[in-house]
């Protein structure tokens, strides 16, 4: 009888070429090793999922912050226009030199 592990049957003659029957101890050890591997893989998957969930949360938060900022900038522009402020024609502060600078 062949066991199924990863979808492929294990060939008994490949494991035990000397035609010895596997002892109960080696069978239990291989099952335990398989279970440890599955448990380790499961833990890694859970950690990756938690990390992905944090990233998605952060993306949503940044997207929301960006929308709020854009809305605030538009409100500020509209208010400055209502006050008649000449902010659109004002020189760029980075290009204006202070007195004493050359």
Automatic annotation (TrEMBL):
Pfam family, one: INO80F
GO terms for MF: DNA binding
Keywords associated with the record: Nucleus
InterPro entries given in the database record: INO80F, TFPT
Residues annotated as domain INO80 complex subunit F: 34-80
One GO term (biological process): positive regulation of apoptotic process
Location of the region described as Disordered in the Swiss-Prot/TrEMBL record: 1-25
GO cellular component: Ino80 complex
Chief localisation class: nucleus
Compartments, record wording: Nucleus
Name of the protein described by the UniProt record: INO80 complex subunit F domain-containing protein
